[in-house]
Amino acid sequence: MSFGGFAFLIGAIINGVASNIIMQIVGRLLLGVGVGFANQSVPVFLSEMAPAKVRGALNIGFQMAITIGILIANLVNFGTVKISGGWGWRVSLALAAVPAVMMTVGSFLLPDTPNSIMERGYTLKAKNMLAKIRGTINVDREFQDLYEATEAAKRVEHPWRNILQPKYRPQLACCILIPFFQQLTGINVIMFYASVLFKTIGFGDDASLMSAVISGGVNVVATAVSIYCVDKFGRRILFLQGGMQMFISHILVGVMIALKFGLNGTVKLSKADADVILFLICLYVAAFAWSWGPLGWLVPSEICPLEIRSAAQAINVSVNMLFTFIIAQVFLTMLCHMKFGLFFFFAGFVVIMTIFVFLFVPETKNDPIEEMGTVWKNHWFWHKYSHDY
């Protein structure tokens, strides 16, 4: 977290003072390093620190911070675009240094997780830390689970090679497919290119930016809903309900744009039409924000045993970032060629990922992170890979 925050800080400064495209690229690369380190470390940190009964809610705090950041970024962009003189973009990019400082300084104030302390050989210190964060000295059972998991992890010399073993196939499949499907929901089309998308379908310049702010606000509120529901109703119900709602929203937006624009895109939207499309997109954003958004980070971070947890999370982050990059690169081309069909394209993937969750993703609500092997043993499909636990 410290290294990631520092890389993000340097990247923000370089972007803010950039005098040429090379500096912009270098700054962006450093921002990518910071995002990668944060996405690798924070979800695992939260899952290892949290008690099982509130692990989902605490872990989704990570996603809540992201959604608040997106909303603030949209508000900043809405304001800085009005700065005269053409230097508003520098303010927008340089302000990323504010959360970077918060992350860097904050990381020095955080304790290590009991899992991390134990893995480095400090048994008594790990037990004391566990007692401190649980607020009680009665942690013998949880500590014993942690001790046994650590001993098992110490026998694993090559976690990257180990994760390919058949007994870890359920975790590996989920750590690849969940982040892959998360990006194929189409959310980054909305969040990255909201202004472009809204302007393309008939909103004015200011209206498109304000629409992006509105969808960002919905994102924050819906993530708060997920924090409340995830440990009460479970992960699977949020995955499945969110998938159905996203599918309906994609289809309705695609149909409406098809009826109003056709293939030539020459018809102007009325205010009522624009409001309906904005409402449907907000409905979609809400569904993602209480399902695939936070759960795409939560579930991979909590399903893996200690001996492969770091490697599995690295795979999760890498797949997520890879497909974020791919979607960002091809979106505008897809929008130009597919037009309203783009929404049907993502709707098809939402159907596939919802079926995947229904069949292959187990419920992990209230299961201690070091006892997750039992979840796989009881699954109708994955149990045949989990006989070695």
Automatic annotation (TrEMBL):
Subcellular location: Membrane
The keyword Membrane is assigned to this record: yes
Keywords: Membrane, Sugar transport, Symport, Transmembrane, Transmembrane helix, Transport
Protein family membership: Belongs to the major facilitator superfamily. Sugar transporter (TC 2.A.1.1) family.
Family annotation (NCBIfam families): SP
Membrane topology, from the record: Multi-pass membrane protein
Native source species: Acer yangbiense
GO molecular function annotation: monosaccharide transmembrane transporter activity; symporter activity
Protein name: Major facilitator superfamily (MFS) profile domain-containing protein
Domain annotation Major facilitator superfamily (MFS) profile: ranges: 1-365
Top-level lineage group: Eukaryota
Main localization (coarse): membrane
GO cellular component, one term: membrane
Pfam name, any one: Sugar_tr
